[in-house]
Amino acid sequence: MEAVRTKLQSIKGSSPYGESRVSREELKHRHFIEERNRAQQALFEDIVRYHREFGTGLVLEDLTSLHEMMQMEASHERACSQQGSVHELVECNLLTFLRGKAEERAWGKLEDYIARFRIPFPISPTMLDPAKPTRNEQVRDQQKRKNREDFLTMSAQDLAELVLGNIPAWVYSYPHKDSYLWQLTVLLGVTAGLAADFFMKYLAVWEEDTTEIINSVQQAFMERIDELHRRGESTMNLPDILSVSNELKKISQEQIPEQIWEHIRDKLGITE
């Protein structure tokens, strides 16, 4: 055993990096991760505070629960297939559709809050010119539109993480507290929490009324879908085949989800 230990020590000592360097690198990495985690926690605390000050009705426990549920929904969306029963096909397209509706509604709420509390939309100070206030407002509006577009095209997984103020791309560090990017991320985190909450409420109606909704969808669309299938099977003409494919895609991705959304909206009394 002593000979084996001696041999191992000899091999270890021949490392081109050396024990001390490996240790320093590990400690440095650990330090960055710890600092990053502390910053993320502080940012989440600001998100919780803004929920309270805005009066969204969402508290810390709600946000952690929404984060977990959104993670499950994100996994479901990734696993979704366009093959299978009518129910499965409808549900696959419906998830993305309803999440989009929830995100749009949440962004509208954010705009209401920043207007009510007179919060300037955060942008980089380098983009502002103190001598040109009119131009500054135009730049601010442009950046707000860009951030809205980015938010509405965010993946379900990124939305789930944003509920807690977690930005996976920021591996080692977060922006300085109270910088424009910090403030922007806090506002986006609030918006993500609202979107997740709306989304879960929409899905609750879908789950509760699935049978009724599917029956309604079948009555409204199955005859037309069957006719399109017959058209597709009876032709070898490429333009006709593409036309049938596009019509089926429009029905499954737009028209059926829109009909289901009308049911959900009426059930929840959403008028906005």
Topology, element by element:
Layout: H1 2-13, H2 19-54, H3 60-79, H4 86-116, H5 133-152, H6 156-162, H7 180-208, H8 210-234, H9 238-268
How would you describe this protein?
By secondary structure, the protein is an all-alpha fold. It has helices at 2-13, 19-54, 60-79, 86-116, 133-152, 156-162, 180-208, 210-234, 238-268. The protein has two domains: 19-207, no CATH class; 209-272. The protein contains nine helices and no strands. Helix 3 (60-79) packs antiparallel against helix 6 (156-162). The chain starts with a helix and ends with a helix. 22% of the residues are buried.
**How much of the sequence is in beta strands?**
under 5%
Distance between the amino and carboxyl termini:
77 Å
Count of extended strands: 0
Order of helices and strands: HHHHHHHHH
Largest sheet: none
Kindly give the count of domains.
2
